[in-house]
Amino acid sequence: MRGNVAGAFDNSSRTILEDALAVPLVPKRVRPLAHAVNVESCQALVNTLAAIAEGEYVASDGSSTNGGATAGWGAYAEGRDMPLHHGPCGGLDQSSWFAECVAVVKVLTAAQAAQRSVTLLIDNSTVLKSLRDVLDRKPRLPRYGFGVWLHVRSLIGSLSHKAFWVPSHGKKLKWRPEVFDGDPIQWRALNGKADTAAANGAATNADHFKDQERADTMYRARAWAVKALNSLTNSATEYITNDAALSLRFGWALPEQRL
User: Which residue, of 39, 46, 80, 227, has the fewest CB within 10 Å?
Assistant: First the structure.
């Protein structure tokens, strides 16, 4: 079986272990991590980010439909007459959590290509916390979704991104942004646009699963595969975190090497 966790980013074919970590591990196949950055898949978003000011708001969101069988990502940048950006999520994991991660990766991939720092607005607190750990350049990557965050770290470079949480779907009426000049109405509106974009992305993915029987079969297969990949990811992460040589190979800062 060949999963495609990394395929949500670049459609490349990898082994299950490589999928779980989103990087090549076999020595004969070692190649720069930058090869996993598929700018072509989000070229329109690259053009949008190149046209906005440094540090501008960009809302990202993910959506999962058909009982977790089909997912899509969406993004929307602040500005007049800005387009909605969206697309289907590839790979075995079609959960809303992973869709949110794909949206973040798409935005950061485009930001890297456009060489533009952005301020991300995200309505998933779990994804936000993990992303902030990476943006803060903490020596240890988040254990949950390790491969995703290893990939994200490669996209940051010298850019100075920020990320903030915004409630989804009108929840938490008394909420106010973390920054003093943040406009709650504006942030909610941007998140609403990204949510619409993500729903559009999931809809394009759902077009491939109009046959309900096939959708049910795919859902069961993906649910099983996700459990298997999660188990494999946890085992591989545990192995790497306890092996100094591998930690250095992946550019991890060991406790005594923290900057």
Answer: 80
* pTM given for the model: 0.71
Find where tokens 């509106």 sit.
189
What does the mean pLDDT of the chain come to? 78
List the domain boundaries for the chain. 37-167+180-245
CB atoms within 10 A of CB 195: 19
SS (H, E, C) 198-246: HHHHHHHHHHHHCCHHHHHHHHHHHHHHHHHHHHHHHHHHHHHHCCHHH
What would be the CATH architecture of the domain defined by 37-167+180-245?
Answer: 2-Layer Sandwich (3.30)
pLDDT digits (tens, 9 = 90+) for 41-80: 788 999 999 999 999 999 999 999 877 778 899 999 998 7
- For residue 163, the cross-strand partners are 120
Number of residues that this document lists for the chain: 259
> Taking Cα atoms as reference points, which of 205, 227, 168 lies closest to residue 66?
205
- Amino acid 139 reads P
Instruction: Label the pairing between strands 118-122 and 85-88.
Output: unpaired
**Distance of alpha carbon 11 from alpha carbon 257, whole angstroms:** 35
Closest CA to 246 of 37, 21, 83: 21
Is the pLDDT at 211 greater than 60, yes or no? no
Reference 77, options 220, 236, 189, 230; nearest CA is 189
